[in-house]
Amino acid sequence: MTGFRWCAPHSTAMCDTAVRVLPDRVLFAKNSDRDPNEGHLLEWQPSREHRPDAPLRCTWIRIPQARRTHAVLLSRPFWMWGAEIGTNEHGVVIGNEAVFTKQPLAATGLTGMDLLRLGLERASSAEEAVVVITQLLEEHGQGGGCGHEDRSFSYHSSYIVADPRCAFVLETAGQEWTSERVKGARSISNGLTIEPFAGRQKDVLRTKAASAAARRACTEAHAARAQGPADMMALLRDHGGHRLGPRYSRFNGGMGAPCVHAGGRVVNSQTTCSWVSELSPGAVSHWATATAAPCTSLFKPVSVDQPVDLGPGPTDAYDPATLWWRHERLHRRLMWDPENLMSAIVQERDHVEAGWLREPPDSEKAFAEGDRLLKNWTERALAASLTDRRPAWARRYWEKRDQRAGFPVGGTP
């Protein structure tokens, strides 16, 4: 892997993770931005005891298993062992970001997503999770393919690690790392930020291509104002201002804002799942979309100790039996003309979420209600007579992804 391939559209992993540490609680939010057809699933894993010599198969390598692993709830790409976002039974929450550094990219090793899951499975506090991740990084290194469309695509990772009492930013470059405790609001958006580490390690060209600075400025400003989960949800849905849909760049599509939409001619990424947490010493609450594009999704309440049967997990092929792909029928149709299609749906979505935030329902009931609303919204969107108003280059990009996934032409049944 030598960098972005400038001669053809290239998909990459862009993300935004933000946190605000308040006197009595911690607010956390993350968008996972990956390839558009890379189905994302929620996965519950119970706590387990393991034999002393047990091996653990991660995405690309085997390492020794811990004697005990904590119960976790993960949001992960369907083909990875590791996860992009997750929490554990102790209220630790972690989100990771791709970062582009001057260190060489190893052919194999633990992926950043593997390290995230390992931190959750083995740590009972945010501070302990930083220790777990950095020790594993130093021992096994990070490496291997991290992309779906292009498995040779690789990168290093940064993290926000939080629990009900504190949060940390952890940044890596190869097997080197640095961290800092968060005071107030903080965000990371595909760029190293902790000096002097960032100045020594950052790959300036690829960091700029990821629009890291623009998105970080937006997310950190949002986080500084946030008072609760609704504000963090709004952070993840931001398209840059008050737009209902993305503003497309010829170069990198809708990557200039936290709610990322693919559709550029060179570099692309798409928000494939989103997560918000409110952590306090007395209670923790988590909200996940389990679907792409938070601007078209509902945040549903989830918890480590209440698994929900969501049916089969998604892959990269269209399957209406999966929640993630059912939602894609709505998402991909709304993007034809979001300014005209989304207003009524957004009002209804916000009303439902406001009620859920006041009195969180049982997770299973929330997902069932979300599915009912999704069906209604999809039928309305498909019935609308409209023209695809996206730029020609964005339309061509999505036509190719639809064909690869076997997605219905024009979003029709």
List the helices and strands and how they pair.
Elements: E1 10-11, E2 15-21, E3 26-34, E4 40-45, E5 48-49, E6 55-57, E7 62-64, E8 68-69, E9 72-77, E10 85-88, E11 93-99, H1 112-122, H2 126-140, E12 156-162, E13 167-173, E14 176-181, E15 185-188, H3 197-201, H4 204-209, H5 212-225, H6 229-236, E16 267-268, E17 270-280, E18 283-288, E19 300-302, H7 323-334, H8 338-341, H9 343-358, H10 363-383, H11 392-405
Parallel strand pairs: 1-16
Antiparallel strand pairs: 2-3, 2-15, 3-17, 4-9, 5-8, 6-7, 9-10, 10-11, 11-12, 12-13, 13-14, 17-18, 18-19
Helix pairs in contact: 1-2, 5-6, 7-10
* pLDDT averaged over residues: 94
Which strand order spans the largest sheet, edge to edge or round the barrel? Answer: 4-9-10-11-12-13-14
Structural class based on helices, strands and sheet pairing: alpha+beta
Radius of gyration: 20 Å
Spans of at least 5 consecutive residues with low confidence: 1-9
Question: Can you count the helices?
Answer: 11
Supply the CATH architecture: 4-Layer Sandwich
Largest sheet: 7 strands, antiparallel
CATH class identity: Alpha Beta
CATH structural fold name? Penicillin V Acylase, Chain A
Order of helices and strands: EEEEEEEEEEEHHEEEEHHHHEEEEHHHHH
Number of domains: 1
Number of strands: 19
